[in-house]
Amino acid sequence: MRKRLRIFQSIHFKIALVFVLLLLLAFQIVGAVFVQRLKSENLKSFKQRVELTPYVDNSLITSLSLENAEQANRRVNSALTGINNQNISDVQVVDAKGNIRGETSANGHALVGQKTTDSRIKRVLYSGRSFSETTYNRADDKHYYVSITPLFSSSGNSNTLIGAVYLRAELESVYDSIDGVTLIFATAAFVATAIGMGLAILISRAITRPIDEMKKQTAKIAEGNYSGHVHVYGNDELGELAQAVNNLSVRVEESREQSESERRRLDSVLTHMSDGVLATDRRGNVTIINDMAAEFLNVTASDAKGHSILDILKIRENYTLRDLLENQDTLVLDMSDKDHAQILNAYFSLIQRESGFISGLVCVLHDITEQQKIDRERKQFVSNVSHELRTPLTSMRSYIEALNDGAWKDPEVAPSFLKVTQDETDRMIRMINDLLSLSRMDSGTARLDLELVNLNELFTYILNRFDMMIKSDQNSEEEKQAKSYTIKREFTHRDLWVDLDPDKFIQVIDNIMNNAIKYSPDGGVITCRLLETQNHVILSISDQGLGIPKDDIGRIFDRFFRVDKARSRAQGGTGLGLAISREVIELHKGRIWVDSVEGKGSTFYISLPYQEYQEEDLWNEDQR
Ligand code: ADP
Predict the structure, then answer these.
(1) Which residues of the chain have pLDDT under 50?
(2) What is the pTM of this model?
(3) Which residue in 12, 37, 47, 580 has a CA-CA distance of 20 to 30 Å to 72?
(4) Ligand 1 pocket check: which of 466, 485, 519 to mutate, most ligand atoms within 8 Å of Cβ?
(5) Whether domain 51-170 has CATH 3.20.20.140
(6) What is the CATH number of domain 372-440?
């Protein structure tokens, strides 16, 4: 949480305080100088005002010079009463001997004739120099100005001290006026300070407001909110700073958007990758896992995050993190369970900084199940082909060896030996032809010669051929041993017109029919059905033969697969017939499958795409 600024810590307060202190200091200095000056000026003029006129001085000098003391005192008194100065509160005249000769105060007359006790007067009489001072009388709380001036009579060239005049004046008026001025000054200072303080607050607010705004904006930027904008109040430094903050906000937003879109792009690359990707921190704990990796490893992304990659890949028993970091480039992980096979290739690479510090590990998982299956199948196929060719070749070799060893001379065995070698050669040729047509279909070079064919007619034509074969078999003497069977037809009455390659299609039906006959008991019934659904025709051939064991049903369309190898081989089968049939039907965009109960019989189904043709379409087709 952000710390709140206390009021006396703020610039706002500091500026106002400094302003007020400066004002007070200025007023203090100006006030002190001004009042001092005013005081001294006032005192000076006051002194001038209370100065006795030279006339009074002269009359006092002449009075004191008189021989007759009484007369002198009277004249002194009259001179003193002649002083008409309101400021003067007391005037005393003392002769050179220190005797008081005149006094203006109310009870002063009693003092006349007495010796003065005032040391200051004595000092003046003694020194002949005038004296003045300002005193404060605590008794009446008043300031007084005291001035003692020596009086000299000038006879001839010499000046003779004949006395002194003591003068006391009340200074209150002067002090009152100074106090009044001081009060006015203090009031003015107070008012000016108050106004100054108001101004200082305004100015400091003007300074701190933009700063405050910028502070708020930068806090917002830090929180990831770039919507605000600092108001630029002027062209000064604060204005430039506000502009810089605004620019900063735009830049930060741009770079955040850039990194955000970069992150999204990376995310979408990771999400849509067909490979699984895992990234870990330097302790090997998963930090990133994409959907594909989660699917491969059968975990949820949230469950995987934070767990060790060794546990997620289930390799803790065989590897340590150090192994992965130091030695391991690739690993093959078998994640198969009993329901489905899954083999993954794991590629490891280090996330390394320029300094060499390893900050994590990236693991890319590639599903190689299919590739492995293809590899296995290819190897199996090669071994099957070699095996299938070796068997007839071995038997042919032994027959040829026997013939070579003299059996050729035996008219009993020689023809049958030759017949076997011929049969085996035929079978090998058939197998090679089958393999060639499969390889053509695998490589995509096999082309279909599509024709619009009436399927009812075509199927009937094929089955008729089989019927003919039964008849000819039964007629020919040497084939009397051949199996007998009946072909039943259950066809829809509707003509089904389908696009197909007749030669290849006949090959498929021949193969299924031959199998039905081959794997059926003597006298079995083979039921052939033809029906249509809304957009498919379905053709089925059922026999009452051996049937196919449940476990093998899924594999009988595989190359070289036979339920009973010896029996199939004895019947001249190559094990490729159904594989070719499936390829042909899939080329027609159809499907072939089987339903079978072991010991009861099998039904082979073929479905082909079908679109109902209107009479007019056919008509138009023929016209073209
Ligand atoms: P083959 O040349 O051996 O007949 P196919 O590919 O035609 O090869 O058939 C594969 C295997 O499927 C056969 O060996 C046989 O075991 C089984 N099979 C095919 N058709 C039938 C059927 N109608 N009844 C029982 N088993 C069959």
Answers:
(1) 1, 478-479
(2) 0.52
(3) 47
(4) 519
(5) no
(6) 1.10.287.130
